[in-house]
Amino acid sequence: MRGILFGLISILCLLSNTCVLVQENVYVSVPSYIIEDDTESYTCAVSISEPKENDIIITLDVTSGGYGRINMPATVTITSGEYYKAFDITTIDNEIPGDTVTVTVSASYPLFESGSKNMTIIDNDDGAFGTPTPTATPSPTP
Fold it and tell me: What pTM was computed for the model?
């Protein structure tokens, strides 16, 4: 659909000889890393290049490595006249030692170029940083 629309715009521009098409972008800002902990919340943001007359509902998504490890809204609304909206990502502590994982958070809006940023989720559970989990040593019995 997007390609067809841009194709039609291109044809109209060629016929009128006066059209300039500027690609709009959606930008997303997230921390480079977060630490898995059920009490941590991280402020993030989406933005567009210039305010619009109508509300813009930006769709957010995260790659599969982030499912079950973070909570974030599915959409964020940039209200008319604004170009920026903050939102929170909250970590989920699954209490299972695991690997540190890098995920991609993306933001999209129809007919805009999508934006994305990578974010590393560091697992803070015992043994997650490559250190073996300590175990109790039985005391000798007489």
Answer: 0.72
Instruction: Give whole-number Cα distances, 15 to 1, 47, 94, in Å.
Output: 21, 34, 59
Phi, psi (rounded to 5 degrees) for 103: -120, 165
Residues 34 and 72 sit within 8 Å (Cβ to Cβ): no
Q: Are 46 and 93 in contact (CB under 8 A)?
A: no
User: How do the domains of the chain map onto residue ranges?
Assistant: 26-122
Distances (CA, A) of 104 to 21, 86, 92: 29, 18, 17
Contact between 62 and 107 (Cβ < 8 Å) = no
Fold classified for 26-122: Immunoglobulin-like (2.60.40)
| Contact assessment for residue 58 and residue 77, using Cβ atoms and an 8 Å cutoff | yes
Among 105, 119, 103, smallest CA distance to 76 is for: 105
Residuewise pLDDT in 10s, the chain (142 residues) = 444 444 434 444 555 566 566 789 999 999 999 988 767 899 999 999 999 999 999 999 998 788 888 899 999 999 999 999 999 999 888 777 777 889 999 999 999 999 999 999 988 776 545 443 433 334 444 4
